[in-house]
Amino acid sequence: MRADLEIIEKWIQPESHVLDLGCGDGTLLDYLQREKNASGFGLEINPDHITTCMGRGVSVIEQDLDNQGLGNFQDQSFDVVLMTQALQAVRRPDVVLDEMLRLGRECIVTFPNFAYWRLRWYLMRRGRMPESETLPYKWYNTPNIHLCTFNDFETLCYRKNIRILNRTVVDSEHRYRWFNRLWPNMLGQIAIYRITR
Amino acid sequence: MPDSLPPDSVGLVEPQTLHFPEPLTLACGQTLPEYDLVVETYGELNADASNAVLICHALSGHHHAAGYHSSDERKPGWWDSCIGPGKPIDTDRFFVVSLNNLGGCHGSTGPNSTNPETGRCYGPDFPVVTVRDWVDSQARLADRLGIQQWAAVVGGSLGGMQALQWSLSYPDRLRHAVAIASTPRLTAQNIAFNEVARKAITSDPDFHEGRYADHDTTPRRGLMLARMVGHITYLSDASMGEKFGRELREEAQKFGYDAEFQVESYLRYQGERFSETFDANTYLLMTRALDYFDPAREFDNDLAKALQHARCQFLVLSFSTDWRFTPERSEELVKAMIAARCRVSYAEIDAPWGHDAFLIPTPRYMDTFTAYMDRVAREVSA
């Protein structure tokens, strides 16, 4: 399993009811169902991912967060709401965060850090929008329309009275390195936050 | 039948008639003293009878879902695209049961049958049966076949309603319910279309208040009109446009009211064929069953409350251009399932064919359906 999913998995209690926004091929939910007896749903828009989820027994719902929202889910109906590597691709990340916290007691969010030193260096040296292994797109065709830094995210949480319960900073391979913690906004590539109201 | 059978066909099949001598009390309060169901099966029931799949038919469907009855038969059963070896409902792995519902006109007890109490044909006296009644009769069918629990109950349109009703009426007797291009209840517009269809039939001078058999006739024109209006609602504007455009049958306009456009002659042909093979009283009854279906009704119109009784897992599929039962209707159903904490998967298949798309094997539809049924089959063999 992907390293970030392993980190997230440790933050989820057995028997949890989980909503995974942008669940991909359902790897995490499948694992949580089997190993932690979790229940819940994945939301996805990619048809191939949806098919894979169905084939492996993950309950998946085709739903476009940006256009359809999350109005079909009731307040506080999940123990955990997850969103891995998708916050930067939604039209209104702030609204999505509010919605996630409306639905779940806790939320886990991961996103790439735009203040990572390599990206800073890329922009300074070439004067062009950075491309990297975590951001492998051109500026005009990227699905990532709201890139942010760890500082930006934490400022938003502060403004919204969102409590940060845990933060882990990892590299693009989702490995946890000691130096990431030293200066996360400069040295961390991907952040994994556990938040609540 | 084609000269050589394709390897994914169930091949030649034979329907059988099962007689049920026990009386069945219906939702309307009347009792059928006894009844017949015409059934087809494909594949083999396994030792612990855990691999059975029930196929529920839509408005004008019947027991003949797959394969051919004879080498002369031009077309295979109505859902041959999805039932057979290697197809989504894989007959190498599942034992598939398909029937003609009560009230039907393809051999099961219906308006054309003899009423044992009077010795006469039921005609319009055949009671209005509901989706729930059908499911009750299907449960007895399951008993007869030695099936305690279906691996899945599957249906499109009105068939999807039956799958849904199964999950509520007999929660422990199915593992999965698959509702394709279906809805938890008809909209006013849906009911309006049904009413136009019924009115077309009942206002035919040959209808004789449903006793057309006594007059040795059938309300053919009414039935044809009913089917024509129905048929329009099953297709999409785009699929009709693609199939016929505004093409004239002959070059010049004739400034008359014969079938001049291709689409007109197509609809007339379809309507005529239908009126030769379908019974008018059955059409009235089946559209009424559609109108009445509303499982939320007895739960303060709260569908989620009704679904709290369900134990099975659900697959819900809709089609983007279906305007008879739109994707929004399926989403309404899924929303209630989520609220009831049912295990449900949902996909909206992008297909141009309107409501009829559930009968057409488009790639994503087949992939999704196959993946889901494959997992059902793995559960059975595990």
How does this structure look, described?
The complex is a heterodimer of chains A (197) and B (382). By secondary structure, chain A is of the alpha/beta class. Chain A contains nine helices and seven strands. In chain A, 37% of the residues lie in helices and 23% in strands. In chain A, strand 4 (78-84), helix 5 (93-103) and strand 5 form a beta-alpha-beta unit. Chain A is globular, with a radius of gyration of 16 Å. In chain A, 39% of the residues are buried. The two termini of chain B are 37 Å apart. Chain A binds chain B through residues 17, 39, 41, 47, 50-63, 72-74, 77, and chain B through 313, 315, 331, 334-335, 338-339, 341, 343-348, 364, 367-368, 371-372, 374-375.
| Largest protein-protein interface | A-B, 22 and 21 residues
Find the count of extended strands of chain B (DSSP E, 2+ residues): 12
Strand order of the largest sheet of chain A: 3-2-1-4-5-7-6
What composes the largest sheet of chain A? 7 strands, mixed
Main β-sheet, spatial strand arrangement of chain B? 1-4-8-5-9-10-11-12
Helix/strand order of chain A, N-terminal first: HEHEHEHEHEHHEHHE
SS-derived structural category of chain B: alpha/beta
Parts with pLDDT < 50 across at least 5 consecutive residues of chain A: none
Overall pLDDT metric of chain B: 95
Q: In angstroms, what separates the terminal alpha carbons of chain B?
A: 37 Å
Notable traits:
heterodimer, A: 197 residues, alpha/beta, seven-stranded mixed sheet, B: 382 residues, eight-stranded mixed sheet, 10 helices, 34% helix
In short:
The complex is a heterodimer of chains A (197) and B (382). Chain A has nine helices and seven strands.
Write the layout of secondary structure elements.
The complex is a heterodimer of chains A (197) and B (382).
Chain A: H1 3-10, E1 17-21, H2 27-36, E2 39-44, H3 47-56, E3 60-62, H4 65-68, E4 78-84, H5 93-103, E5 104-112, H6 117-126, H7 150-159, E6 163-170, H8 178-182, H9 184-187, E7 190-196
Parallel strand pairs in A: 1-2, 1-4, 2-3, 4-5
Antiparallel strand pairs in A: 5-7, 6-7
Chain B: E1 16-20, E2 24-25, E3 31-32, E4 35-42, E5 52-56, E6 83-84, E7 89-90, E8 95-99, H1 131-145, E9 152-156, H2 158-169, E10 176-180, H3 188-202, H4 220-234, H5 237-244, H6 262-277, H7 280-292, H8 303-307, E11 313-319, H9 327-339, E12 343-349, H10 363-381
Parallel strand pairs in B: 5-8, 5-9, 6-7, 9-10, 10-11, 11-12
Antiparallel strand pairs in B: 1-4, 2-3, 4-8
